[in-house]
Amino acid sequence: MIKPKILIIDDDHSILEVLRFILEPEGYDVETTPDAKRLFARKDHFPNLILLDLSLLGESGGNICRKLKQNPKTKKIPVVLLSAHSPEHLKEEARSAKADAFLPKPFDIEILKAVVKKYYQPPVLPGS
Amino acid sequence: MPTMKFPWQRIYGYGFAVLVSLMVLVVKYLLGLTFEAPYLLLFVAVVISALYGGLGPSLLATFLTAALVNIYFIFPTGELIVDRKVDIQLVTYIAQGLLVSLIVEWHRRSDRKNRLAEKQLSYLGAIVESAEEAIFSKDLNGIVTSWNKGAEHLYGFKAMEIVGKCIKVTVPEEKIAEWEAMMACLRRGQRTDTLETIRRKKNGDLINVSLTVSLIKNSQGKTLGISSIARNITRRVELEKRRDEFLGLASHELKTPITTIKAYNQALQNFPEVRNSQAALILKKAEGQIDRLTRLITELLNVSRIEEGKLELVPSKFDFDNLVRTTVEDIQVTTAQHKIVLSGRTGETLLADRERIQEVLVNLLTNAIKYSPYGKNVRVNLSAADHHVQVNIRDYGIGISQGDQKKVFEKYYRAQSNNNPYPGLGIGLYLARDIINRHGGKIGVKSRKGLGSNFYFSLPI
User: Which residues pair with A80 in a beta bridge?
Assistant: First the structure.
């Protein structure tokens, strides 16, 4: 069985670690990265869900999300924006970047799990 | 400034009057005129006394010369006879003397007033000219009529470059509408509040200014023009922006580790070997403290937003009773000692900022617990009337004295216990009041020292 793949982009290493710690036992295949470079270099094997932090070291999460949503290849991938900035700011950014959902930090892990469960797209099996 | 008049100046005036009066004797004995009284010469003496000494000396000169004329020129000479047949010339002379004294005095007074006014004007002119603020006037169409040094400095236009031209040249594109609205307001004769806005200097640089504009009216109430006082607040605005960025960054940096700790803490609570042990309880308590830390960080950020009027409300429709109930349940978990008893219902759906209203509830509930260290109950009552919902939160704690009841909603106010402040930032109720006021609601407290407090707020339906 192919595990649904979640890509987590956050420049804070501890956040990447804890999200992996929480989501892997739930049966997800988690890939973490501090920036989006590798994501845009990819031709296929796109993730089924992206958890994206708003403030990254290089390009902002908002911009990355915009690019993903403009690209026909990636626009179907659900994106959940995360941020430790004010929830109002996050909500505004999520709306303008057309993110599928947003989750202010700090979050309740039950809510995180529920959001992930709701938005990940089941993998398309070869030949189906 | 009124000029001081010293007593000896007065004495000089009177002495001068006596001296010129004695000219009567000079005329009689040195010049040898004996028959014709020298009224014209004496009249000149009176006028000089009046000009030099004022009303008192001129009256003295008038009567003294009249008496001397009476003695030395009117037959029989050598004595002062009052009841002799009235000398018509003498009476005319006295009348003229009185008249000229009064006229000169009146003239002196108005002259003094004018000089004073002139002096004040020149002082005011000097103040305006040397002021650091830009002070200028314009007519109701915005044509500049005067322009001080401060204005030259602030806007970069010399007075001769801008007087006679429209002040609009200093208004940047995006502020034209605001400027026109302000002018329209002034033309209607309305006052305008001090405005913080942006202006453009001659060299094109944009500056932040604080602008106080008012109508100039004469004593009859007729509008003569508009006065403007502008201060450069660019530096202050920059500092505020930097402070905001700092606070935003600090709150972001603080929340990031909290996110990790909270997530690990919750994950631990879900471990089978922890779930039903005492460790779960300990972790639950730790989580309560993590949430408390998060609230404190949020509050800090909110205070800076309130100060700039940037605290945005995001209204949505929600079930008010449900919000109160779930908030009460959340807070109940944080105290083993107190029982929070909820009664009443409103049955109302509100259009309001749910999260902000919840912040207010959390604040009032945590205060009720914090300030009733020996209390057992906190009572929460819901009611609805007159298109308002109301919440009462009653505790049986330390209470608030009459004098302190006004202060509790002030920023940084903290309740004291034996001169030691209770823990906290002193901004919870300040935030609560702002949130409720901006929803068009009311917040208040009824309390007696030692007998607990009843905080309440109402919101329009």
Answer: A51, A101
CATH superfamily of domain region B132-232? PAS domain (3.30.450.20)
In CATH terms, is domain A5-116 a member of 3.90.550.10? no
Contact list in A for residue B264 (CB cut-off 8 A) is: 18, 21
The domains spanning B132-232 and B316-460 adopt the same CATH topology? no
Q: Among B348, B354, B361, B322, which Cα is nearest to B443's?
A: B361
> Min CA distance, A123 vs chain B (Å)?
27
Task: Say what the ipTM of the complex is.
Answer: 0.87
pTM across the whole model: 0.59
Closest-CA distance, A50 to chain B, in angstroms, reads 18
pLDDT, tens only, A3-18 = 668 999 998 999 999 9
Kindly list the domain boundaries of chain A, sorted by start residue.
5-116
* CB < 8 Å from A in window 282-311 of B: 290, 294, 301
**Would you call B252 and A18 a contact, using CB atoms and an 8 Å cutoff?**
no
Domain boundaries, given as residue ranges, for chain B: 7-127, 132-232, 237-307, 316-460
Tell me the per-residue pLDDT of B326-338, one tens digit each, with 9 for 90 and over.
999 988 988 888 9
In the CATH hierarchy, which fold is given to the domain comprising B316-460?
Heat Shock Protein 90 (3.30.565)
A16: nearest CA in chain B? B260
